[in-house]
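Hi R.,

Here are the chain sequences for the assembly we discussed:
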Amino acid sequence: MSTDLGMPSLRPPVAPPGVGGLSGDRSFPAAAKDALADDQLRRNLGNATRTIRTKRAAVVDEVPDWAQLRAAGAAIKDDVLAHLDTYLIQLEEQVTARGGVVHWARDAAEANRIVTELVQATGVDQVVKVKSMATQEIGLNEALAEAGISAWETDLAELIVQLADDKPSHILVPAIHRNRAEIREIFLREMGRAGLAADPGLTDDPKALAEAARRHLRQKFLTAEVAISGANFAIAETGTLAVVESEGNGRMCLTLPRVLITVMGVEKLLPTWPDLEVFLQLLPRSSTGERMNPYTSMWTGVTPGDGPQEFHLVLLDNGRTATLADPKGRSALRCIRCSACLNVCPVYERTGGHAYGSVYPGPIGAVLSPQLTGVEYNSTLPFASSLCGACYDVCPVAIDIPSMLVHLRSEVVDAKQAAHRAPSAEAMLMGATGWVMRGRRRWPLALRALTLLHRPIAALGRLRGRPVRISVAPPPLSAWTAARDLPVPPKETFRDRWARQERGSLGSGGARQE
Amino acid sequence: MRIGLLITCLVDGMFPDVAADTVTVLRRLGHEVEVPAAQTCCGQMHVNTGYPRQAVPLVRRYVETFSEFDAVVAPSGSCIGSVRHQHADVAGQVGDERLATAARELATRSYELSELLVDVLGVTDVGASYPHRVTYHPTCHSLRMLRVGEKPLQLLRAVQDIDLVELPDAESCCGFGGTFALKNSDVSAAMLADKLDRVAETGARRLCASDSSCLMHLGGGLSRRTGSMTETVHLATILASTKDPS
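And here is the predicted structure of the full complex:
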């Protein structure tokens, strides 16, 4: 069964607001402020990200042709994006020919409806889930709950998040913000409500925690009739789906239940099997810092008598075509959700994922979320970066995140200007500084005006007998002086000094501070 | 070789000694430096805050002011980063292909100070002396946009009497980030605090970098720390320093 997408409109639709997990209700700076105040969170994040990024650096450094692999990964994804229409049709044909059913979902609401109806048709009210970003993105668990269907997460970290009624804060390690003492508490308190309860004597030893999760989940695996997964890759030429994971819990879901429903973003395609070879090298090393991930599950349609006997593939757009339409933003769709950029990001390391409001946090989230929803709904995310460039360096598919952030900032500015007739204070300031700076006479005068502050400040310093620090300033500089002093302007600009000395005695620099 | 100095707006208005020190170093090596009066700013602030159209006249001004030079040097990795990675694109955004081409061409002759010294002039020992314990923070745009790599450290290692100590986590951002420091002040301050903790661990009395903007942020944080004896210093200032100031 496939749905006609109809005639494409001029501007492809973005993800609908209010459905799923692509945007929060607070600005990034406001949410970040609260996160920064949580010392425990900062310690957990600092330790965890440091461990993963050190591991990643070691296993990437040992690959002699990493640069070539990275270039190949980017090129394959760009080819997929340039010919997405062809590859998607090919995938649909192949999946269908091998006994699977393909569904097309324009957005989160449509995908949720399709999956809910598929589950309802089986008559069960419980499903098991493989860790999946796409289903987090569309808010599938919540949609199923509304229909009276319980969806149980089986990835250990997702289970922790679900039991705590929390939200994921990292793409790969959704419970990265929790330490083991907190996890023990959650297991003791919540497991019984969700199924097999934890042993009251449970300790916070990692082995004991894993064992508790294993017992709890085993009961789910052995009783589940329907599983829901995402996909890391889909191979167009054969219709094969692939999930890579570390725990084997995904493998249980993909093989034991009778019905398997996979929700996958349309950009997850690869043309051929040899392309997969590139990504199975790039992904584990970038993601978990492992040479190879422990479990790679692949399936092609339905095999009678082996594994799920009913397979549905839901292909999700939800703003991806809109992202594809922007030549400066589309390479965000190369992303393979490895989360290497999160682990090296100095902003993410200090705020954690929740501050971003989207299930896609960190640098990739700051460029992907606003594109999927339209910049109006995630307008502070493109500014949630110091543009340090660490993310670009580690990206296994070479997404130039800093340049894309800069591009999206101008999109945000343009959207705000279109929405309000009067320009913002910032726009006026930028216009004014732009006007002053473009004038070869205006600009030196403006700089000279700054130096007029030197004498009174120096005089005040002499009066007090110590140098003055500028620790208070009016907005917008008050945001600066909240944490830092401002330097005292010099008594003369460089260009005035240069003109005065006419290149005469400028050679006495350097040691003057001594 | 005709060398033009891009003073950079921040150095011109707030840290003029850094430009003077840049001139001093190049003169000691036998190179004259010209400072064209028509220059203003590279436009990075406008581009990175989301106002690329405001930057177009600044790109044009940079190209018109410096095209006649064999090389342009700036005591800033960030401004040269903007010249090299943003100027042509900004011109292209408004469809000015001629300007884009000229900007692209001039960018190949625009250098951050350590690049000019090491790559173009082939010098690592500039005859400096600096008797202090120094730690070096490699600013993000020098490191990851320009890929200056070890060049600033090569220059510092050749300075006489310097006690150069390694900065832990050197490659992580100090938290400045231009208007990021204002728009996300709390995150910026948290990054700054961690960076200054690492600096304190080194026991260095001088924190060196090759960008006055990052140094303004770091220095503004240092002067808030009670009891901190560490001061910021620009790479150009260390390289300009000698035993016998002449």
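Confidence is low (pLDDT under 50) at residues 508-514 of chain A. DSSP finds 23 helices and ten strands in chain A.

Let me know if anything looks off.

Best,
T.
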